[in-house]
Amino acid sequence: MEPESYLIDFIRLKSHSGEYIHQTTESILDRFQIKEKIYKVVTDNAASMIKAYKFGLTIDDELNDDGREIQLLSKTNEMMNDSDDDFDINNFHFIDIQHSDENIIDYGRSFDIRLSCFVHSLQLCIRDGLKSASHIPKVLGKCQALAKFSHKSSKMADLLEQLNKNIHRMNLTRWNSEYLLIKSIHSISKGELELITLMMDNQVKFTNNDLTILEEVIHILEPFYEISIKCQAETAVTVSLVVPSIVHLISHLRDIKQDISFCSKLIEQLQESIKTRFSGIINRLDFVDVAEDDHYGDTLYFMAAVLDPSFKFDWIRDLQLPIHMENRLKQNIIQLIIDEMTKDSKKPTNDLNKVNSSSAAITFTEKPKVKRRKLFNYDDNNMDDSNESTTLDPAVELAAYLNDPVRTKFSDYWFHSQLNMLKKMVIRVFSVQASSAPIERAFSHAGLILSQRRTSMNEHLFRDLVFLRVNQKLL
């Protein structure tokens, strides 16, 4: 039981307006007769993409990355050619839980069909921090100048090869670009770095403070990088990583402050950016009602975190909440999942009255009577198996799952699970991926196909080649 992604069409748009993107999407979905099957749409944060799938979303220009609205041909040129363009640093766009109505926040509202790419949102947080931190832009400018020269000078390239070092090239359209650039330079010793910079036409010098800043930036941004890599997986579930990742980043920034000398401003800005760009998640963690236009306000993220056997409620520990607040948060999420399961069931549920949770386990409060099986009656609905008593009650199925000590991989666990109602919900929820990485890979494949030598390729052949390349595992 693993997610799979396939390309159904690939079109070069003449207009990148939100309306045209929306019309094109609907046309493709109608052609394949799958419009009614769409559960969620994951896109980056470009204003045109938000407008295309907004369904009531409000547009906040300060929170959108209009720079991501890049045409395919531009992407192709970046992928096929090494750009030596200068970047101006100043222009960076970087549980015993008792049932009580007063403890339950209504999280059952229906939110928009569009979801933001989680990895892209993380990159925007990073750039918010880098452009606002007082010491970092100047040091980052030195790193950029060195990287640019290293890719122009054959002598420096030879020296780097002798030292078995590589300086990463910075590209604002690539995820984790700043982090990889800084880390590649920090991996070079101070003596080697001085030797390398002596070869530059306009030499830059890295002081001891500069090197300390680079080290601190790496320590601060390392979890962001690790999370973004995990969330780009194509054959593993990733939507369950969103909430635990945000919680981990909150605790990471909170705990690392005391070890930072120069980059405290970066930490503060990252914290503020997370609160803004992931306001829906933050508000739920703070027991604040979530507005319809809050970013990442969809209840799906919390349900997915708990329904992943790798997490369940373990991620809550990082919040260091008082026990009664931790239990309240668990109770809210339990109610959320039960409400979602009930949508698929005609049988009413008693909600939390059936589920008694604690920090250690969740147990059954009542064991249903086992119906007597008629002689030689082999109807599957009357079969007495280990999960028969739970197939009609969402609360009991959820209790069985949360009380299960087995911690296997997501795919193995749910493939063998007999919790039918919960499994049906899991399949729907985990059809969503955290990032738009699959379509980013499609762009990469398209860039390799539409090289400068093939610019006269007709549209039909281009689309067919991209389709075959991306979906080659079907061949």
List keywords for this structure.
two-stranded antiparallel sheet; two-stranded parallel sheet; mainly alpha; 19 helices; 475 residues
The tally of structural domains comes to: 2
Number of strands: 4
Number of helices: 19
Per DSSP, what share of the residues sits in E-state strands of 2 or more residues?
A: under 5%
Silhouette: globular
Physical arrangement of strands within the biggest beta sheet: 1-2
> Separation of termini?
21 Å
Q: Sketch the topology as an H/E string, one letter per element.
A: HEHHEHHHHHHHHHHHEEHHHHH
Give a quick account of the main beta sheet: strands, pairing sense, barrel closure: 2 strands, parallel
Low-confidence stretches: 56-111, 347-354, 356-370, 372-390
Structural class: mainly alpha
Helix content, binned percent? 40-55%
Radius of gyration: 26 Å
Mean pLDDT: 79
In short:
With 475 residues, this protein is mainly alpha-helical. Helix content is 47%, strand content 3%.
What would your notes on this structure say?
With 475 residues, this protein is mainly α. The chain has two domains: 1-81 and 444-475, no CATH class; 82-435, no CATH class. The protein is built from 19 helices and four strands. The chain has a two-stranded parallel ribbon with strand order 1-2. Strands 3-4 form a two-stranded antiparallel sheet. A hairpin with a 4-residue loop joins strand 3 and strand 4. Residues 56-111, 347-354, 356-370 and 372-390 have low confidence and may be disordered.
